[in-house]
Design a protein that fits this description.
With 113 residues, the protein is an alpha+beta fold. It has 2 domains: 33 residues, no CATH class; 58 residues, no CATH class. The chain is built from 2 helices and 4 strands, in the order H-E-E-E-E-H. The strands form 2 sheets. It has a two-stranded antiparallel sheet with strand order 1-2. The protein has a two-stranded parallel ribbon with strand order 3-4. Strand 1 and strand 2 form a beta hairpin. The radius of gyration is 24 Å and the shape is elongated. 3% of the residues are buried. The model has no long low-confidence stretch (mean pLDDT 89).
Length: 113
């Protein structure tokens, strides 16, 4: 990606459209639009982040059909040491309520040892 070209494009769009620089404040009980002067933005490249160790993922055993299919929930791409997936009985809402929360507590204790 050409970061410089993206930065120039974003700044051109902001300069062209006053609504992107507009805010509203109340003056004597009435809303007034204030258009700020153009201040160029500077994009900063992000550094890729990887974790050298293993990551523990706690996942409800029952998942709705529209949930993420990746069992590691995307963490496998970041964890160089791998991912341990722990399935907790119940669904997304019930794993934090009695009696299912006990399964989560047990799995957490095992990971912390």
């Amino acid at each position: 990606m050409n970061l410089n070209a993206l930065e120039q494009t974003i700044n051109a769009i902001i300069a062209r459209h006053k609504s992107l620089r507009a805010t509203f404040k109340q003056v004597e009980g009435e809303p007034v639009q204030i258009v700020s002067s153009m201040e160029k933005i500077k994009l900063v490249p992000l550094v890729s982040f990887f974790f050298s160790g293993r990551i523990a993922v706690f996942r409800a055993r029952r998942q709705p059909h529209n949930r993420i299919r990746d069992l590691e929930l995307g963490w496998g791409k970041l964890a160089r040491g791998g991912v341990d997936v722990h399935f907790i009985p119940g669904d997304h809402d019930s794993v934090l309520k009695e009696p299912r929360v006990q399964g989560l507590a047990t799995a957490l204790k095992k990971c912390l040892r």
